[in-house]
Design a protein that fits this description.
Order of helices and strands: HHHHHHHHHH
Number of domains: 1
Helix content: 55-70%
Structural class: mainly alpha
C-alpha cells in the first residue's frame, strides 16, 4: 500500500509517523562505524524530504509562511542557542552533574566531517552542505508538525484536530516546550526555543511562520558552526 494512502486514513499517523521514522534514522547514526553518522544523515535527509512530499496533501497546516515575527524569533533563538552555555545547560553535562551518568570517555564532537574525511575534502563539504540543507528545509516541517500541530493539541484532547492552533493551553504549552528542549543536547536553549516557536503558532494561528523561524535558526546555526568550528552544536 502506498505510504500516502496509508497515512491518509489517520490524521494522527500523518503527523506522527514521519517524525518517528526520522527519529529512528537519527538513532541509527554512528551505530555502524564513525562514517555511518554522516551517511545515515544523508539518507534520512532524503527520506525526510520524501516524507514531507507524501504528507503535504494530508496536513493542511504544513505550509511555509513568512513574517517579521518569524524572522525575529528565528534570529533571536539562534542568538540564545549559541549564547547560553554552562555546565548545566547541556544534557551531556547535566546528567553528570546530577550523578545520573558518568563523563563520556570521548569528549570529541560526534559530528565533525573535517576530522572524519579530511579538512576541505569533497566528502567533508558534501556532508556540511547536506547537514545545513537538511536542518533548514527538512527538519522544521517534520518537527513543527509533530510538536506544534500534533503534540500540543493532543495533550489537550485526543480529538486534537478540534483544538485551534491559536488556543493557549498552559499545561500543553509547558509540556511541549519541555519535551522539545529535552530532545536536544542544549536542553535549556531548547526549552526556550520550544516556547518561542509555540508562541509564534499561537500568535499567527498557523504553522508556517514557526517553520520559517525554525529554518532561520538552523541555517544560522549551521553557518556559525562551520565558521567557528563549533562542532559540539551538531
Amino acid at each position: 500500500m502506498p505510504l500516502r494512502k496509508f497515512l491518509s486514513r489517520s490524521p494522527l499517523a500523518a503527523r506522527v509517523a514521519p517524525f518517528v521514522i526520522f527519529v529512528l534514522l537519527t538513532a541509527a547514526q554512528g551505530k555502524f562505524g564513525p562514517a555511518s553518522a554522516y551517511w545515515f544523515y544523508f539518507a534520512k535527509t532524503l527520506v525526510g524530504a520524501w516524507l514531507i512530499f507524501e504528507i503535504r496533501p494530508l496536513v493542511a497546516e504544513m505550509r511555509w509562511a513568512f513574517s517579521w515575527e518569524a524572522v525575529a524569533v528565528g534570529v533571536g533563538i539562534f542568538a540564545i542557542w549559541v549564547g547560553i552555555s554552562g555546565e548545566w545547560t547541556t544534557q551531556n553535562s547535566l546528567w553528570v552533574k546530577l550523578g545520573v551518568s558518568t563523563p563520556p570517555k570521548n569528549l570529541l564532537p560526534t559530528w565533525n566531517p573535517n576530522a572524519q574525511f579530511g579538512v576541505g575534502s569533497a566528502l567533508a563539504w558534501l556532508f556540511v552542505v547536506v547537514r545545513i540543507l537538511g536542518s533548514t528545509f527538512v527538519v522544521p516541517p517534520l518537527e513543527e508538525t509533530f510538536y506544534r500541530s500534533f503534540l500540543y493539541r493532543y495533550l489537550a484532547s485526543q480529538n486534537f484536530l478540534s483544538v485551534p492552533l491559536n488556543k493557549f493551553l498552559p499545561l500543553p504549552f509547558l509540556a511541549t516546550a519541555a519535551l522539545f528542549g529535552l530532545a536536544h543536547n542544549e536542553w535549556l536553549a531548547g526549552i526556550v526555543c520550544g516556547a518561542a516557536y509555540q508562541w509564534l503558532v499561537l500568535r499567527k494561528n498557523r504553522l508556517g511562520d514557526t517553520m520559517t523561524a525554525h529554518a532561520i535558526t538552523n541555517f544560522l546555526l549551521g553557518i556559525w558552526i562551520v565558521w567557528r568550528g563549533a562542532w559540539n552544536f551538531w
